[in-house]
Amino acid sequence: MKILRYNQFGALFHALKKWGYRIIGPVTNNGTIVYDCITRDADLPRGVTDDTAPGHYGLSPTAGRARFAWHAPSNSPRQYLFPPRVPRFHMRQDENPPRITAPAIPVRTALIGIRPCDLAAIRSLDTVLLDGPHPDPDYRMRREATFIVAVNCNTLGATCFCKDTGTGPRAHGGYDVLLTEYESPNHVFSVETGSERGENFVSDLPVDEGSPDLRDANDPSVASECQSNATTLSLNGVGELLAESFDSPLWDEIADQCTTCGNCTMVCPTCFCHRYEETSSLDGTEVTRSRVWDTCFSQDYSALHSGAIRISTKSRYRNWITHKLGTWAQQFDSPGCVGCGRCIAWCPVGIDLTGVIRDLRRRRSPML
């Protein structure tokens, strides 16, 4: 294991620029932490953590000067690998023959500060958009042009449940470089590599050999000793539970709260629902076809030739959570939820999907 000292952390940015990467990393913006374009070490949050609860997100200072004391930014890497709007082609009809322009090749991008839950989310997107018989060409190009610098979590946020989904707090592959931040006894970062590209990159950093103390501290059993007030969710039998609870009165109770705003799907790092739309110029000489994000909370999303098939709020919420925790696992052998807790924090009425599952279990087994 290698270590990178706190006062040498800027070398990571110099190396990424040398390798020709645009850098995307965490920054503070309007009281939140978001992934955005950054250029230097000083752009990262320092001594700041995020406080989350159902329907709540805020920032508060920490006692130290850690760069990665937060848990999950309000957005996710999905917006850079699978952007909200992507032009698929542009056509001009006022030329002979009509000229069709393909989308530009994505720029090389380095994602820094990626949490283990978001690494798992990227693996889920890979499964859906890359590994099937018809991979999405735009996603494939962006994925191949992306370099990932992940960071292990030292604590869990109040709405995190990655320990239950098996996606954190330590990373399990999917990165080029993996960092773990240690504030004591000396503020350093351990540096691990997960690819040949990562190995070559680390050779450009001023790293030293790690000490035995850091090797012990880097043990997964130590990292798993996260704060105990985090949200919990047992996935054991959850698919069967949701199937059996199709007619549960709980869905009506949730429908009385849910606004079908789609916030949960917009902040989710694994959602891939999308549609295609075409826009034309006023004179009809140009047309652009784009892939845009969609949400299953939209009534139009379930529209067929005879009309929408999920017109009620309860049917849309039930479909969303059943897909995330049940049918997704049947189709892809893993749940569509990575335990980041974003949907809980950013639900304007504070609906907690882990609480929904607990309520369904209590109603199925009232004596427990």
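That was protein one. Protein two is written in the same sequence-then-structure order:
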Amino acid sequence: MESKSLVSTIVFSTAMTLCAPILANAQKYVADVNNYPDKPIRFIVPWVAGGGADFSARIITAKMSEGFNQQVVIDNRPGANGIIGAELAAKATPNGYTMVLLIAEHFINPSINSRLPYDTVKDFAPISLIGAHSIVLIVNPSLPAKSVQELVALAKSRPGELTFGSWGNGSLGHLSGELFKSMAKIQMVHIPYKGAPQAIVDIHGGRLSLMFTTVPTGLPFISSGKLRGLAVTSAERLPILPDVPTVIESGYPGLEIQHWRGIYVPAGTPKQIISKLNAELVKILRMQDVRDRLTAGGFYPVSSTPQELEAFSKSELERWAKVAHQAGSRTN
């Protein structure tokens, strides 16, 4: 009995010795959660600077920096339809010091790419929606089409000659164009770009015929007269573009599309941090100056609980799977 007791004592003592660093780290981690944030936060935007995603992210992060008294640093990581930036976020330490802006494309990607380096839903913890906006169909003013109907007639008279750009294969701009082709029964050639701003440069230069882009990205060019807006994908006309009809008015009701944005953190981030981030975002999105800036840019500011965003994320995954299948956009 004495020998058995001695062995038990040794085993227990060894176990406590091995666990001591783990317990110490756990206590430090709890302290870090209580003091969060006590250092700068990285905010990954998986899209180019100057686009609609970047526009909304910079408004939000400026206010977060003020509210937390810690710098929230934008880290633009464009490429692969948002996959590059999303992978960085998915593999980051789940301690609240990495956030990522995910948009509709994140939930389109599984339907067009079977080899994603992360799980679209399970590897990310939702914080809050920050808003949504419409898509606008833009063309160069020199293109002989001042309405959707005239554009369709032009495309039918020149099958396969018109080109439409997007911010990447499988992007919402790409699928919008594919749906439009299918519904209007026209032939156009898709040209993917690294980001929407690059495509707009080519439309303005006459090297690209048209594009379905985000309202925040297209608005300045439409307002200045550099590009022509033919239609918006919202249910009703937008106050900031009152002279641009909806796609519904133009005879294509099935093309009603809203582009949305949400903020996420790596899965496993402590619930206390998620709650703190959500509370801060809700507060920011209620600020009148934030709402005014987002609205002026063609954005509809809206917040949510993490649970609401989780449910919405899953519904988007199902929705875009059907659309991608219809558009035949599978890449591998």
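The longest strand covers residues 124-139. Keep this in mind for the problem set.
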